[in-house]
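Continuing the batch. This is chain 6 of the set; chains 1 through 5 are on the previous pages. Same settings as before, nothing changed between runs. Recording input and output for traceability.
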Amino acid sequence: MFEVELPYPPSINHYWRRVGRRTLISRTGRAFRTEVVAILAQRRVLMLDGPLEIEIELHPPDRRRRDVDNALKSLLDALQQGGAYADDSQIIRLEVAKHEPVSGGKTLVRIRKL
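Output for chain 6:
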């Protein structure tokens, strides 16, 4: 099992951008992914194989209304890109909870191999 503190993820509403007929990850989404990859590399996280359980604690940066499911795509994709696991299809249990806001926002992630 490992636990890591990450920045608050961008909403799915800000993760994708349309450019002509193409759909791309937005500048905000790419910046978030780059930051997560760097944090995981610094922690020397090893890729987990097999079925996984993930617990996520979201601490938004302010009190605006936010849907917890809108934060998941960018977060799970960034964890995969950073090498925490090979593919998000490995996740068989996912628990997400939104907590009180903290200045700047943060996300606590715990990943367990089952």
